[in-house]
Amino acid sequence: MSDTDLLSIGEVINELRDEFPDVSVSKIRFLESQGLVDPHRTSSGYRQFGTDEMARIRFILQQQRDHFLPLKVIKSKLTLWERGEDTTPDSEHSDAIEPTGQPLTKEDLLKRSNLDEAQLDQLIDARIINPIDGSDVFPPESGVIGSEARRLLELGLEPRHLRAVKLAVERESELLQRLVDPLTRANNAEAQERARDVLTLSNDSVQAMHRAMLNGELRRYLTS
Prior knowledge:
Elements: E1 7-8, H1 9-16, H2 25-33, E2 40-41, E3 47-49, H3 51-67, H4 71-82, E4 104-105, H5 106-113, H6 117-125, E5 137-138, H7 142-154, H8 163-185, H9 189-223
Antiparallel strand pairs: 1-3, 2-3, 4-5
Helix pairs in contact: 3-4, 5-7, 8-9
């Protein structure tokens, strides 16, 4: 590829800004520092991005925006993406209990979920979405929770009805916490890492059981 085909980091931002308004020079540099992109360097040290690197950046930003995935998971998906294999969430195991991004401001949460302020306030009152320490900052998973809650509200449910989902999650969490209590009480890194592995695997199993059981119950309702 000739130098005329390569873009500077500023030109990359201009190319992506309409699709990804939050993209910035510092974000691209951070992706490079984490080994997700590898731009060409001029003799003067300036970054230059070719067609392949632009495609990689678009893929990474799409995974963050659409699936709220952490960079650790996206990095593993890049190998599949490079081979042209399926990278949808169900096509591979993902570490679901790992952090899924940065905390969200109230403005970010409203933008990602398409909730209005009244709906968000109702979900907070129902403890479906919980601000961090009573602030206007929310955990990363709040974007997905808010988006799915909005769909259920549009279908006719009310925030108080979603407490059933919250209570089910709390019971499942308590069950899995008891499973790893002996490991989390051990004061060594190996036990802590084992606890994380057990929670990840058991979380995947519980989620799969939950979905299968719910599908079965709803199918029986429709055929009864």
